[in-house]
Amino acid sequence: MCKPFEIAEKTVREYISKEIPFSYNELLSEIIKRGGINRVAPVYSIKDFLEEYIEDRVLFYDNETRQYKFMSYIRKIYQKELEAVVLD
What we know:
alpha+beta, Arc Repressor Mutant, subunit A, two-stranded antiparallel ribbon, 4 strands, 15% strand
């Protein structure tokens, strides 16, 4: 695989492993700063790559904040609400 593609894929995976919400522009800026490009393969864009994580229910896109967020975040909120109901 070409080095810029590897940098792009590695950067996306790093962002996802942190589980901190991020915007597409923030991610793309970091990829370019590291010497990558906006693709993880010749015909496979960063957005396509992120879409896989959305389909696998790892990420979701929040239109209000224009950020990718993690389903685990939603599960934590739901769990806290559930615990609050049970404790009341």
